[in-house]
Amino acid sequence: MVYRHESADRTPRGAESRSNVSMAAEGGLAMRIALISDIHGNEVALRAVLASIRATGVDQVICLGDVATLGPRPSAILDMLQELKCPCILGNHDEFMLDPELIRTYTEAPIVVDAVDWCRDRLSRDELAFLRTFQARLEIPLDAHSTLLVFHGSPRSHMEDLLANTPPEELDRRLAGHAATVMAGGHTHLQMLRQHRGTLLVNPGSVGLPFKEYANGGPPTLLHHAEYATVEAQGGAVNVSLHRVPVDRDALRAAVKACDNPMRGALLQQYA
Ligand SMILES: [Fe+2]
Ligand SMILES: [Fe+2]
Known about the structure:
This protein has 272 residues and is of the alpha/beta class. The protein has one domain (8-266): Metallo-dependent phosphatases (Purple Acid Phosphatase, chain A, domain 2), CATH 3.60.21.10. The chain contains ten helices and nine strands. The protein has helices spanning 17-26, 43-56, 74-84, 92-98, 103-106, 110-122, 125-132, 168-175, 249-257, 264-270; strands at residues 31-36, 60-63, 138-141, 147-150, 182-184, 191-196, 199-204, 225-234, 237-246. A hairpin with a 5-residue loop joins strand 3 (138-141) and strand 4 (147-150). The two termini are 35 Å apart. Bound molecules: fe (ii) ion (2 copies). One fe (ii) ion (FE2) binds at residues 66, 91-93, 152, 187. One fe (ii) ion binds at residues 38, 40, 66, 93, 187, 189. It holds the Pfam family Metallophos_2. InterPro entries: Ap4A_hydrolase, Calcineurin-like_PHP_lpxH, Metallo-depent_PP-like, Pesterase_MJ0912.
């Protein structure tokens, strides 16, 4: 699938994307990447975000993980990601599909545990095999001067937060051993752009479950849009943009009503 309307002849596509990314970097061409994260089974929101990305045009989409759980349409998301052939990072909720005990080390909230178990029960062997291809981290050259490092929570853990108010010394520990012009992770469901000792830290927010404020283990309040980010570089210039896309709430409600996910009641309350 091509995401740029113009200059499509140099647009990286699918499985060849990493080598094409390198070729663009060596040639000093502009590289524009869309970062999507924390889709959480929300097909309506993912379709809205992909339409926005197509309208803007990018060279590459990268998914930062937490793709299937909690929302009504886990398999639809996995189908769409496989069709996109975009690199995917392993989120904690993706690993919850592969390791059934792991969720209990993360939360004891029954509604979340039940929703994760519900999702796992619905995934096929092929869908689980697809999740096993997700990587912990990925480093991408943006141009001859700039690199992008992507992960889910922090470079060292898919369960760790990088927040706007994380103390700098704690950030040093969470980012230790890694260097890049731009570092991007999801997981908190909060959009963020922060400069830390010269590095731009980006959180694209959440496609499917954007939070109004830091949840800190409690029940979140959802925002009424879908979120993503773009990173663009050319000749040492770097631009990061945070995007918010309107979502059809009637379609969201209909999708949730049609499923028997344990989160159904809580989601319908949020979408009322
Ligand atoms: Fe998430
Ligand atoms: Fe996460």
